[in-house]
Specification:
Layout (H helix, E strand, L loop, with lengths): L4 H19 L3 H9 L2 H7 L10 H14 L1
Helix pairs in contact: 1-2, 1-4
Length: about 70
């Protein structure tokens, strides 16, 4: 499935904002965590339609990734 790049960018922004609020960190720190996550890579390459998941679900996935590291 090909995703409209503008919609995907909007989704990234929403996930970053949710991550920032959830972890009570700055948007810049949330961006760093998001763009260095496997979840971002999966969204970017359309793996498992991750971009279709809710923002909260994606933030939880990033949290799980971080706990494994």
């Amino acid at each position: 499935m090909t995703v409209n790049s503008r919609l995907l960018q909007h989704k990234y922004a929403n996930v970053i904002a949710e991550l920032s609020a959830s972890l009570q960190i700055s948007l810049l720190d949330a961006m760093d965590i998001f763009y260095n996550s496997n979840t971002y890579q999966e969204m970017r390459f359309g793996i498992a339609d991750m971009h279709c998941r809710s923002d909260k679900y994606l933030v939880e996935e990033i949290g799980l990734e971080r706990s494994r590291d």
